[in-house]
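Collaborator request, handled under Task 6.
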Amino acid sequence: MLIALLVMALLASLLVYRYFNLQIMQYENYRVQSDRNRVHLQSIGPTRGLIFDRNGVLLADNRPSYTLTVVKERVGDIDAGLALLQELLQVEAAEIEKLRQVLGAGRPFEQIPLKFRLSPEDIAILAVNRYRMPGFEVKAELARYYPQGEYFAHAVGYVGRINEAELKALDVLDYAGTHVIGKTGIERYYEDLLHGTVGYENVETNARGRVLRVLDRTDPLPGRDLILNIDARIQQVAHDALQGERGSVVALDPRDGAVIAFVSTPGFDPNLFVGGISGKDYRMLNESPDLPLYNRATMGQYPPGSTIKPIVGLAGLEYGVVTPSTVISDPGYYRLPNDRRNYRDWKRGGHGGRIDIHIALEQSCDVYYYDLAYKLGVDQIHEFGDLFGLGKRSGIDLPVERPGLLPSREWKRANRNEPWYPGETLNIGIGQGYMLTTPLQLAVSTAAIANRGRVLQPRILKSVSGEVPGQPLATQFEIKNPVNWDIIAGAMEAVVHGARGTAKGISRDLQYRIAGKTGTAQVIGIAQDEEYDSELIDKRNRDHALFIAYAPAENPQIAIAVIVENGEHGSSTAAPIARTVMDAYLLDIFPPPPEPEKEAEPETETAATSSGALEATARAQEAALVE
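Structure tokens returned to the collaborator:
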């Protein structure tokens, strides 16, 4: 009995010690653990800032939406839960696999969204089956919505789910409680301004994780609202004027670089991406031969064709290669010294005799510019084109922009390991060959012509919550004789208002004066002894149509660049689009685009040579000269 009493006393002592250790020595530790089981710190995502056009038209909104979320740590079998979700809501197997990846990238005890924009039927089904889905919850929140749809798809862009790579690069605290991030356009470029600051709250939950009450709260700070320079009315006019063709319209204010319109067609509905686009919808967009996801305004690189001629002409005057009185004869072709190759003019039979720089620009005489480019040389063309921003990024406030290509001897030696041939100089003299520009670059260089050498950095953002940001960058270059600006400007006016101007068709009933230049860029090579016949060529291989302009000519308020892929003629295809946009902006007139004038087509400029044909010919003639 004594031994038994001692054993009982020892066991009682151990029990008392254990009680003492748990309830007194480790009290704080277990109290905290207990609180963690019932009290949780939850992050509160901030409301994303809104985006407006210059007139207050809403471009990016936040609308109430119901989202299915899950805390994976509270789900016993996540695979079974996803299988049940697939069965209840008829979710595609591919989408379930995406959800597995999203769950794998999520933070511990975080509410991870699985399905956005639940329908009333979806909510009812989930409510009935809630007992079978522990850890799953329907949550009300604000979701991004783009009321303008495809009109601003490439300018404003869209938001989408934060992927695993982005999650690793982001600050965890800054994006706690946030499940979307800007992917393209303004949404991505100004993500820091639009996002806001995360808030937090301590909540008490039951054993199933359902929130019973909020203990304390720190409110999030909403993102800042952005006002853009783009005019929604003009944006819509420019988009509709393209009539579904593949192309781009970029319009700038040459006084300050403000982007008035920024269009790339075809577009797409950015709302498809907000909650995670379905595999079917993405395949339709991604596999479309028209490339609707491709931003042609900043990423499309095209030969500028004859739209480069005002800059080449000004270079000829600046370097003293030609004067206003210099004339040539145009028999319809041009030959280099000691070469039998005929470099054809777009107009069969030529433009006649006594062609000066004014007539050459008005009628877009290729032979004049072959001769001028040959006399200038590639080095001076490259040097002068660089002043206008060709061959480099403009610095627009968008996340991606391609630089185009302004070729030079050094570039060809470095990239092709070949010398430069004289025939290639002729090629770039009419905007063909290696030369490539984006529609945005053409608009910037056109504004520089209107500004007499002031090159502006284009800017989409106008203000942030009423605060105007710093002025965009601008550079000014001077030429030796400022009168040369007047010569080029007068010739560009004659393109539209002259009796034989290549864009005279858009001057009918015009209430202001336009200075412009048509262009046609060849897509495929045409042999020297063949004639371009669009009826025998697949549409996607036909020439591109281009037009650049600024107006009013005496006091420029808008500079515009238009390109229509495979549109063939700048005068009858691209120029009317520019006229429609400028009428809407300067006069508040919104007429439908005029029909192309069939009778004017014989006088329409076409691409004279192909880059491939000229390159091959240049090599052959250079080899012959060397021999």
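The cover message to the collaborator said: "Residues 597-602, 609-627 have pLDDT under 50 and may be disordered. The longest helix spans residues 2-25. Please let us know whether this matches your experimental observations."
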